[in-house]
Specification:
By secondary structure, the chain is mainly alpha-helical. The chain has three domains: 132 residues, Fumarase C, Chain B, domain 1, CATH 1.10.275.10; 253 residues, Fumarase/aspartase (Central domain) (Fumarase C, Chain A, domain 2), CATH 1.20.200; 64 residues, Ribonucleotide Reductase Protein R1, domain 1 (Orthogonal Bundle). It contains 18 helices and eight strands. Strands 1-2 form a two-stranded antiparallel sheet. A hairpin with a 2-residue loop joins strand 1 and strand 2. Helix 2 packs antiparallel against helix 3, helix 3 packs across helix 4 and helix 6 packs antiparallel against helix 7. The N and C termini lie far apart (98 Å).
Amino acid sequence: MRTEHDALGARQVPDDAYWGIHTLRASENFPISGRRWPGVFLSAFGQVKLACLEANAELGALDQAKAAALARACGEMIDGRLHEHVIVDPFQGGAGTSTNMCVNEVLANRAIEILGGRLGDYGMVHPIHDVNKHQSTNDVFPTALKAACLRLLKDLEGELARLQEALQAKEQEFADVVSLGRTQLMDAVPVTLGMSFGSMSEAASRDRWRIFKCRERLKQVNLGGTAVGTGLGAPRTFIFLASQNLKRITGLPLSRAENLADATRNMDCFAEAAGMLQALGANLLKLCSDLRLMASGPDAGLGEIELPPVQAGSSIMAGKINPVLPEALSQVALRMMAAGQSVALAAGLGQLELNQFAPFIAHEMLESLGLCSNALGPFTDKCVKGITARRERCEAHVKASMALATVLVPVLGYEAVEALAAEARRRGVGVAQIALERGVADEATLAELLSPRRMRKLGFTDEDYAGVRKP
């Protein structure tokens, strides 16, 4: 064991630990969730620290040997080799100070090791005086969060694009399948199955646009603002250099916020981005619910589409297959919607010059983005792409319904059609049979009125009803 000191006294730290006394106290104070920060966030933290140390090295605030060792340590944090040493729980007080201090200690000790020293010998490289030089948790933490979110949003946009393409492919594949539209879960009027999937793809398209807007909202960072956005304790040149370096290192379109105090004090950009993710969650929940209903049964439910079987559905009911992929994505969607509300509340609860709930906002944002990207891939590849239409089932539902009655209203009038529908129900036959018996139209005309071409046509013309006669 080695002895380390802070303002509260001395503590024993394991000799082989890259973390130090500040991390030890944080791990004791916050044994809350047992979770760790996701790798994308820790890599972004490494990029922020690298940008800052390069700026300090250029200004002569760090000697070349320290800077080289720290640059190598940051590289290892970026590529994931040091992630396991960041052991603090994401649920923590202090606006992220525990996380920043842990990263500082891990990078310092790794740099000490690279220079040939013993872990904990902070006379060689100090976590605060060297690694955290000209910085504050209050600027590096939200900057790392924004960089990580931008990375995840790019991944999510790619997954949404694949989902949209898969839904568009189904729109084309099912363009000639007439199915029964439903409102309030009750039989309504005919649509095509292609139109249903087209509506799904349009929703995905809007979600892609929202993701793009999310990225726009998170591009400005407060790096260099230090504690409250005034830049107190940081040279002016460092403030400009650090932001420029970060943009180059990350390859992301990051820029220094014009008002660093505003960017430090307010987190409404995360609330806005989380709200857009909440809308995405709502659309995904609706999509999954619709697919489950359309595939329900399949024998005693709607059963108009068939989802690919991916695993057995029951430990007792042999042959049962469940819609597990839509169900899994639905749970992710619910989590995203809840996170949107949580982030909005946390952003509003920030006080004066800083938001003390930055770690909670970070956790909610990163978890939502990661879960959604992870769930969308299997959902698109193993579910949507393999959906097939049960054409005979769709046709049977249309014929057995009163859908034709609504189609005839523009010519026959509501009351006359209501009488046709009532007789059809009383006799247990379709409206088409009653219409044929009463000489309303011949079979060819009735078939055309319910054809895919007719469903895709916007509104009707007199030509559509040329073969229809009042009884």
